[in-house]
Structure formats: C-alpha cells, structure tokens
Design a protein that fits this description.
Layout (H helix, E strand, L loop, with lengths): L2 H10 L1 H4 L7 H8 L9 E5 L5 H9 L5 E6 L2 H10 L5 E5 L5 H7 L5 E6 L8 H14 E11 L5 H7 L2 E7 L6 E7 L2
Parallel strand pairs: 1-2, 1-4, 2-3, 4-5
Antiparallel strand pairs: 5-7, 6-7
Helix pairs in contact: 3-4
The structure holds S-adenosylmethionine.
The site of S-adenosylmethionine (SAM) has 23 residues, from helix 2, helix 4 and strand 2.
C-alpha cells in the first residue's frame, strides 16, 4: 500500500491516523525485537495502518501462533485485509477498545503480546482509558505490551499501569519515536 494512501487518510482523519507517513523499517525492527515469537501463542496488533509491522510479524509467526490485527479506518482495513493472507492472521475491522469482545468472538481469551501503534496522545481521555483497560484485561500475567509514541509524555501513565516500563529510541523514523515495552512480570 502506498505512502500516498497513508497521507490521504492522514488529511481525512489526522487525529485517528496520528502520523503523516508510515513508520520506518528501523522503527519496525525496534518494535519487533520485543515480541516473544518463540513462546507467544496469541499476538495482537492494534492500528496496523498500511501494515509495515503486520508483514514483518506474519513472516516470523510460529505455526501455532495466532495474530489478531485490529484496524478502525475503512481504507486501511480493506487494503490490508487483501494483503494479509496468512492462515493464522485474523484481520478485524473494529476498535481497539473492543479488544476483549474481539478476542472472545475469535475463540481466544488472552494475548501474550499486544503491539500498538495507536496515537494514544491524540485520543480523548475516555477512549485512552478504555483502550488501556482493554489492554491490561486482555494480557496474560506474563504478557508484554509494546507501544510507540513520539514523546515521553506517556511514560508516567504507563508506569502507573505496569510494574516494568523500558524505553528504546528509534531515531531513524519520521518523526523519531520512543518504543515503550511494558509488563508486570
Ligand atoms: C500512527 S498510525 C500507525 C500505522 C502503522 N502501524 C505504522 O506504524 O505505520 C495509527 C493507526 O491506528 C489506527 N487506529 C486509530 N484508532 C484506532 C482504534 N480505536 N482501533 C484500531 N485502530 C485504530 C489508525 O487508523 C492508524 O492506522
């Protein structure tokens, strides 16, 4: 899917899309390095956009690991659903705030890892709270939450929710991004 398509969606729904162009492969590498591909049975991706992370996650999926990908934007969803052809990849057109129901409807209870590109800082407070509640309710006790943001503004918020929060920096991205890795174990 083209950068042009991403820019078009940004100008249509900038608060929801959150960035002007897709993430770089450097940021993708930093996001993926925290995913426990060897042990995870259920991985969730929130806000895949054009699928820069999705493609790379699918390429590394173990045969018995399922990937649930949730996208709210119509154009991104339909384009990515055509492309994301993998027997264990479940594309869902919906909101991250409905994560619990989405997992349940697909026959899963919890996720071992949730990878999010959601522009949380742009969201109304209530939506941000709903999404983070859904994330914490749906992660296994040893699960990992990985989220990138363009500022350090979310650090305290994540530290209130998770016991462990570490931050990595991806300079080669526009804009440069912080990768948060959060867990309770
Ligand atoms: C910053 S873009 C990231 C896209 C892509 N992962 C990347 O890094 O290039 C944020 C994405 O989150 C999606 N999104 C926004 N709100 C959402 C929600 N409530 N549920 C699911 N996806 C959402 C947007 O449509 C967009 O695709």
């Amino acid at each position: 899917m083209s950068k042009k398509s991403f820019i078009q969606q940004f100008f249509k729904e900038n608060k929801m899309v959150g960035s002007l162009i897709p993430s770089s492969r450097f940021l993708a590498k930093k996001m993926l390095q925290h995913i426990p591909f060897d042990s995870a049975k259920v991985i969730v991706e929130l806000g895949p956009g054009t699928g820069i992370f999705t493609e790379k996650i699918m390429a590394k999926l173990a045969p018995d690991t399922h990937l649930i990908v949730i996208e709210l934007n119509d154009v991104f969803y339909h384009k990515l659903a055509e492309k994301a052809q993998h027997p264990n990849c479940h594309m869902v057109h919906g909101s991250a705030s409905d994560l619990k129901k989405i997992l349940h409807d697909l026959g899963f209870e919890k996720a071992d890892c949730i990878v999010s590109s959601l522009p949380l800082a742009n969201f109304p407070k209530d939506l941000r709270i709903d999404i983070m509640e859904a994330v914490t309710n749906c992660l296994t006790p040893t699960g990992t939450f990985i989220q990138f943001q363009y500022t350090l503004q979310s650090k305290k918020h994540f530290q209130r929710i998770f016991k462990h929060v570490s931050i990595n920096y991806a300079a080669f991205n526009f804009p440069p991004a912080f990768v948060y890795r959060c867990s309770n174990s």
